[in-house]
Amino acid sequence: MDMGRRSFLGLLGLVLVGFVSCAKRAVFEDVSIAKGLQSREENHKRVPAGNKYGGATVADLDGDGWYDLVLSNHGNNVEWYWSTGQGSFESADPHMRSFDVHGSAVADINNDGKMEAIMAIGGSMGSKPSIPVWLTFDSKGKVKKSRGEEYGLGQDRMRGRVASFVDIDNDGDLDLIQTNKREPDKLEAHLVYENTGDGQFILRADTGIEGVKAYQVVLFDINEDGYTDILFFSSWGETDLYLGTGDFKFIRDEDTLPLEQLHYTHCVAVMDYDNDGDLDLLAVRGRRAPPLAGLEDNLIENILLENRGKGVFVNVAEEKRLSVLTDHTPRHVTYGDFNNDGYLDLFVTISTAHRDTRHNDVLLLNEKGLYFKTAEDYGIEVAGLREDGDSGFAFDFNMDGNVDYLTGNVNSTWRLYENKTDLRRRRHLFVRIGRPPASELDPGLDRNPLGAVVRVYTGGGDVFTRQVETPGRSHAQAYMDTLHFGLMNKKNVKRIEVEYTGGVTLVREGNITLDSEVIVGRFFHCPTGLTGKECDRVPVCDVTNPCNDRGCERVFYRKCEECRSYFCLPPGEEPFIETESETPAESPTPTEAPTDTATEGPTDTATEGPTDTATEGPTDTATEGPTDTATEGPTDTATEGPSGTAMEGPTDSVTEGPTELTTGTPTVSPTEVPATPTTEIRMP
After folding, report:
1. What highest taxon heads this organism's lineage (predicted)?
2. What is the residue range of 479's domain?
3. Cβ(490)–Cβ(579) under 8 Å?
4. Is the pTM of this model over 0.85?
């Protein structure tokens, strides 16, 4: 018996060793070249001109349901990649060489179903103030360049930094906020444009934000009054919050957020990290420059403001293990549920002082909202010379249910990492957000999806929250209208709720199948020559003529529930499917963060210069320090001083030893439960 027991234990040991070894395998794989993402040859040959100004613009530009890429690359060449719809990309040439591009953004400004891209152009250190450049494309995917005057812009030439689309007045079309580097002899720098509804813009004066010093922005409705608010932040100075009123006027607010804790911020992520249904705020910050007297370590802690409701935000970064991630400066942060456990994880790009060494980006796994754990052996190997970290972006490029990762370097190269983690036994859902269908009957209900807050409710009472915005904002703005929700082993989704700006709420119940894409709302008005499966989302039935056996979207005003109309769902959408699943043996839910801090890998010993600033080469180089003075190089690249955050020029990179992703093991057996799918739209 002893021999048998020893044999059994020996076999068990081998199995456990194999399991541990398997658990530590790489879960991300560099597929950049294999998937068609390869920077232009000129960008490799040219001396790096500085950072890419904080991220890629990721959006479904042609409305085919797959994300495309616009990569600005600052002083190097702009790159444009079309998704083939098969998990790969094809390059298009936007003919923008050395344009000193800073922020980029996209929007469908005339509601024709196609996106237009705008590029904020720097001013060659103030010697050549510029206006934005627009990029459009034809039916064959060929990109065309246009000047801003064609769209009503150009009243004042500026040193452009950030372009942001937002529906300021809740009329259903996207307005434009252009923020700029302020010149020492000017009191105003920022421009606010109203969209007239036909793809043209008019300048609005005296909005209240023209003179704000900072120019990086994040947009969300912080006080939940239906109007989008603006948080201005800067890697080199102060932070300001302005509340929207809906009439192109913004009011400075000093009470809602602890603004003094948010100075010297590189990047801001607005997300629901703890799954309580509201939006929290994470600010990653860097180093001050010059260093404070008597202090050798000038690293500034990150801030995680937890939304406690009723306008109360509390910094919980330390207890969530996010206050200090590394010896170096966090340059950018992006979020996504990388292991489909239902909680949003983080990827942090780290920068070094002298831009001569690239360290691996840091993966932080969300432990059920209680704390974040640094991952290890996850397969991201980006360390190398002259590839200092600049930005990162989380999105599912091949729509397989695993969130992937795009990371950029200051030398205008990008790497795409496919998430290879085996998550087949964990559930997910894609929700593609369109316009409220009720706008077909009442144009006053028309809303653009950008900025909408989307909540997915499961049968067990869980809520998962996302926003149609950029998953980590620095300079570039994305348009993420297909949202990924990891659901772990949840049995079903009962309801999808979309809160558009201006108090319009859409509720979809029924026709929700796990591990699939659910389309909510309409996407465009299907003008002549444009077709698609969304085009039949029109009011083809009413109270007296319901949709027979087809599902309907029920639409009504909150104040007039008897004023109902019905919209037939597109043919082929199956009735509501509820799946039942055995509860898998998951690791127990932690009750508190362990007292011993997680091992964050080796400490990087790179010597950091006292200012942690970097000369940004030939593009709009300015030392954007607190005094707002700039050492201006040839092309509007700036070393954004104080925080060592050099938003206008890279900073430090990190050698984080992250931990691996884990996988669950739920068993699922679907069962059909017919239900009447309804979609209601409410307006206060």
Report:
1. Eukaryota
2. 427-581+674-682
3. no
4. no
Alpha carbons 533 and 571: distance in angstroms, whole number: 9
* Residue 631 CB neighbours (<10 A): 16
**Residue in 604, 640, 658, 669 with CA at minimum distance from that of residue 474:** 640
CA distance 314 to 322: 14
Q: Is 412 left (phi over 0), alpha (psi -120 to 50) or beta?
A: left
Which tokens sit at 207? Answer: 């909005």
Write out pLDDT tens, residues 478-501: 999 999 999 999 989 988 988 888
**Which amino acid appears at position 568 of this protein?**
C
Asked, for residue 359, whether it belongs to a domain, the answer is no
Closest CA to 217 of 236, 240, 201: 240
Q: Which of 264, 258, 153 is nearest to 199 (CA)?
A: 153
Angle at 341 between CA 339 and CA 342, to 5 degrees: 120
Residue given tokens 């050798």 in the structure block: 296
* 175-181 sheet: strands from edge to edge: 159-166, 175-181, 191-195, 201-204
Q: Is residue 375 part of a domain?
A: no
Cα 151 to Cα 237: distance, rounded to the nearest angstrom: 33
How big is the chain, counted in residues?
Answer: 684
Residue 540, both tokens? 């083809």
In Å, what is the CA distance from 190 to each residue of 103, 105, 407?
14, 16, 29
Give the per-residue pLDDT at 71.
86
Please give the C-alpha separations between residue 28 and each of 226, 382, 597, in angstroms, as whole numbers: 39, 12, 25
Q: For residues 259 and 243, what is the distance between their CA atoms, to the nearest angstrom? A: 14
Residue type, 581: S
Task: Please state, in angstroms and as integers, the Cα–Cα distance from residue 257 to each residue in 209, 221, 260, 284, following that order.
Answer: 18, 13, 9, 16
Phi, psi of 506 (to 5 degrees): -115, 130
Q: 463 lies in a domain?
A: yes
Are 340 and 426 in contact by the 8 Å Cβ rule? The answer is yes
| Long-range contact set of residues 78-81: C-beta below 8 Å, sequence gap at least 24 | 78/119, 78/135, 79/39, 79/40, 79/43, 79/414, 80/135, 80/143, 81/36, 81/37
Assigned token pair, 267: 């990047």
Instruction: Judge whether 556 lies within some domain.
Output: yes
Q: Is 584 exposed, middle or buried (0-12, 13-18, 19+ CB in 10 A)?
A: middle
Side chain identity at residue 640, one-letter code: E
Question: Is there a cis peptide before residue 527, judged by omega within 30 degrees of 0?
Answer: no
Handedness of CA 490, 496, 498, 503 (dihedral sign): negative
Distances (CA, A) of 403 to 306, 347, 409: 24, 11, 20
Q: Is the predicted pLDDT of residue 683 greater than 50, yes or no?
A: no
HSE-CB of 675 using CA atoms within 13 angstroms: 19
- Give the whole-angstrom CA distance, residue 439 versus residue 442: 5
Residue 116 makes CB contacts below 8 A (sequence gap 6+) with 106, 107, 108, 109, 134, 135, 136, 199
Ramachandran area for residue 224 (φ above 0: left; ψ -120 to 50: alpha; else beta):
left
* Residue in 378, 301, 312 with CA at minimum distance from that of residue 345: 378
Q: pLDDT tens for residues 38-97?
A: 765 555 555 444 545 557 899 999 888 999 999 887 656 788 899 999 899 999 887 776
Structural contact between residues 270 and 279, judged by C-beta atoms closer than 8 angstroms? yes
**Comparing 297-311, 403-417, 432-446, which segment has the lowest mean pLDDT?**
432-446
CB 49 within 8 A of CB 418: no
Please count the structural domains in the chain: 1
